[in-house]
Amino acid sequence: MSNRVAVVGVGQTKYAAKRQDVSMAGLLREAAKRALDDAGMGWSDIDAVVIGKAPDMFEGVMMPELYLADALGAVGKPMLRVHTAGSVGGSTGVMASHLVSSGAHKRVLVVCFEKQSESNATWALSIRLPFTGGSVTGAGGYFAPVIRAYMRRANAPDHIGIKVAVKDRLNALRNQYAHLKLPDISEETVRESPMLWDPIRYLETCPSSDGACAVVLADEDTAQGTPNRPAWILGTALRSEPTMGAGRDTVNPHAGRDCAKDVYAQAGITDPRQDLDCAEIYVPFSWYEPMWMENLGFAEEGAGWKMVDDGSTSFDGDMPINPSGGVLSSNPIGASGMCRFAEAALQVRGMAGEHQVDGVRRALGHAYGGGAQFFAMWVVGSEKP
Amino acid sequence: MTDVLVADHAIEYTYTRSTGPIIGAFLAGLRDKRFVGVRASDGRVLVPPAEYDPVTSDDLTELVDVADTGVVTTWTWNDDPVAGQPFDRPFAWALVKLDGADTGLLAAVDVPRDEMRTGLRVHARWADERVGAITDLACFTAGEGEGVTQGTVGEPVAIVETPIRLDFSYTPGVAASRFLRSVEKGEIVGQRCPKCQKVYVPPRGACSMCGVATDEELTLSGKGTVTTFCITNVPSPGLDPPYVTAWIRLDGADITSMFLIQECDPKDVRLGMRVEPVWAEDKQPNIGSIKYYRPSGEPDAPYDDYKEYI
After folding, report:
1. Residue B242 preceded by cis peptide, ω within 30
2. Fewest CB within a 10 Å sphere: which of A307, B77, B202, B203?
3. Omega into B48 within 30° of 0, i.e. cis?
4. Quick one: pLDDT at residue A196?
């Protein structure tokens, strides 16, 4: 990227099963206003607005960005909508950063959301087309076989998924915006929870949330004058691959490995486990933590689960993963990737509150979507590159 | 040339939409047979109301009562109404600027074709049963109404139900149609990529990895190996849990296909299990004609044989 870009504002709604007190626009606006407040800006300071959300079927409003222009101060300004399934929160951040790095705009408002309570995502993801038998139900039905394949490939013990489920929920207790608050969670309660899509148990899945997450991105001159410390974007990358391809590795997707390699090269990271201080990654089913540890190069192939088992990925570990509680604790689908990117920024800004990891200088934000075929990542740092 | 299959396909759902305080007040007004707008920063009264100012983006909060009578500012004639529209006979769609409002409200107008015109004075005709939804306004009709209803609006409507139905004419395309026609004959055909030589089942007409068309067809035995699977315990349309969905590498294919596994206790399904298809007696051009897969009784395939196909 040519011009430096920084995250100068972050705003989130409280994530909840149902936010029926507000309209869709009201929900986005709550996050957007908080991000503007953090950035010390008003609507008129913004040059362009970028919106991200997952499939329109989730709320049944086609092209919601059209109706959201007033609510987000986009009238008379460029407005874009990005869509890459579950990774959209990440790719929206990346696309918005390009508007600043290219020099096109100086201050860009980025807002991602989902209002899952308006419908049922499992229904929307299980539409049976004519001529097909159709037997997959929801995202769990799609990803469970991939997880089983990982367990076999890595010879991973059954309790790994359970440990991640407990760890992320305990982290969520530190996060004021997290949806699930399960203070009494234990390996026992996760193990005893219903097996939904064997090998995925109920407490190993993400919740269904309403919520929005926003960031304000700014150019270097603007970032040096904002009230709070900026998070400098050190690298951004996107990669995709087909859902169904002969020879495709669904467990350890090539696109994810390439995306990580690209973003690390831009950020000057040679050993991610050494050079990054924490990461917020997209883990909607607990087993995706060890799987992504390998895909992102934090562990050798087949060894990702050992990082979970020895506590490396816990809040006090050497590589804290999802100190916010992650997608397992809050899942406004279209915003879930943006939450990861925003939480990474909060960590390097020292503004993550009770879930602040000590001394974070560089952090990774990661999102994936579709059949684990879209990847979006950014690395942010506390020091100007 | 293959006859390409086509079928009707409908997606239907009733969404529950939360309205927020401003739209909620507007809907509550309709329930009480009255119109509520909001005052914008430039003094205009917006009906239907906006939550946020279209110019400044500020929150809008000042609700304003307007009349049930107004003027048609523009219109179009709808000769062929479709299901769900206000009338099943021809009618007008119009923007109606109510007295006291500065913007137009889109609604049906029930007047004869030759009486419809811009500038026509119209008033609201209300639905007999009103629930706090836009459909409480049945339509507008010619002439003067009651004017402005003053006073406090009832409790804002918090949620509206929005039934949505989309009708499609769906075609699976040339390659899948050929595959489905083979299924109708009790055969499973795949297509080989001329570049990487990998075999796709069902064929997609192109190799997703190489991006080239796949023309060469070959018929497979139908037997295969379970490479991974899921035991689903959640309810699903037409399937009683628990049921097993497996990714099966059919012999000769280089990609897995998803099928149900039956005639087998879910607990006994395993990676490497050899399976064979069970066909429906009345075969259709539908993947469902392969009712499910069942254990073939052959010895399990070694892991190295299928580990690349996940």
Report:
1. yes
2. B77
3. yes
4. 95
Residue B1 lies in a domain: no
Which residue in chain B is spatially nearest to A58 when comparing CA positions? B15
Query: What residues make up the domain containing B123?
Result: 15-166
Query: Strands (DSSP E) along chain B, which ranges?
Result: 7-18, 35-39, 45-46, 63-66, 69-78, 91-98, 104-109, 121-126, 137-142, 159-170, 188-192, 199-200, 216-220, 224-232, 243-250, 256-261, 274-279, 290-295
Cβ-defined contact of A242 to B208 (cutoff 8 Å): yes
How many whole angstroms separate alpha carbon A2 and alpha carbon A15? 35
Which of these three, B104, B131, B166, is where a domain ends? B166
Judging contacts by C-beta atoms under 8 Å, the chain B residues touching residue A132 are 286-288
Give the HSE-up count for residue B105: Cα atoms under 13 Å, Cβ half-sphere: 32
Which pLDDT tens digit goes with each residue over B142-192?
Answer: 999 988 887 777 899 999 999 999 999 999 999 999 999 999 999 999 999
Q: Report yes or no: B208 at the A interface, CB cutoff 8 Å.
A: yes
Note whether A129 contacts B5, CB cutoff 8 Å: no
What φ, ψ does residue A335 adopt, rounded to 5°? -95, -15
Which of A19, A27, A132, A135 is the best substitution to test chain B (most B C-beta atoms within 10 A)?
A135
Question: Which domains, from first to last, does chain A contain?
Answer: 1-122+135-385 (3.40.47.10)
B52 and A19 within 8 Å at the Cβ level: the answer is no
Residue B296 lies in a domain: yes
Is B290 in CB contact (< 8 Å) with chain A? yes
Shared domain for B79 and B111, answered yes or no, is: yes
B157 and B177 in a common domain: no
ipTM of the complex: 0.93
* Residue at B5 is within a domain: no
B16 close contact with A: CB closer than 8 A: yes
- A137 touching B (Cβ < 8 Å): yes
Q: List the single residue in B with minimal CA-CA distance to A18.
A: B18
Residues B22 and B75 in one domain: yes
The answer on B180 and B162 residing in a single domain is no
Contact A382, A352 (CB under 8 A): no
On whether any CB of chain B is under 8 Å from the CB of A73, the answer is: yes
Give the closest residue to B10 by CA, choosing from A130, A293, A270, A274: A130
Beta carbons of A133 and B229 less than 8 Å apart? no
Paired strand residues for B213: B206
Residue type, A144: A
Q: Does B260 touch chain A (CB under 8 A)?
A: yes
Burial of B310 per CB tally in 10 Å (0-12, 13-18, 19+)? buried
Percent of chain B as helix, strand, coil, to the nearest 5:
15, 40, 45
What CA–CA distance (Å, rounded) separates A287 from A1?
34
Question: Torsion over CA of A91, A278, A329 and A112, rounded to 10 degrees?
Answer: -20
Closest CA to A320 of A367, A269, A356, A374: A356
CA distance A200 to chain B (A): 9
Nearest to B50 among A70, A115, A135 (CB): A70
Give the global pTM.
0.96
The strand pairing partners of B250, in sequence order, are: B224
Note the pLDDT tens digit of each residue in A300-359: 999 999 999 999 999 999 999 999 999 999 999 999 999 999 999 999 999 999 999 999
Residue of A nearest to B236 (CA): A137
Distance CA A304, CA A281 (A): 14
* β-strand pairing of A107-115 with A48-52: parallel
- A72, A75, A81, A87: CA torsion to nearest 10: -20
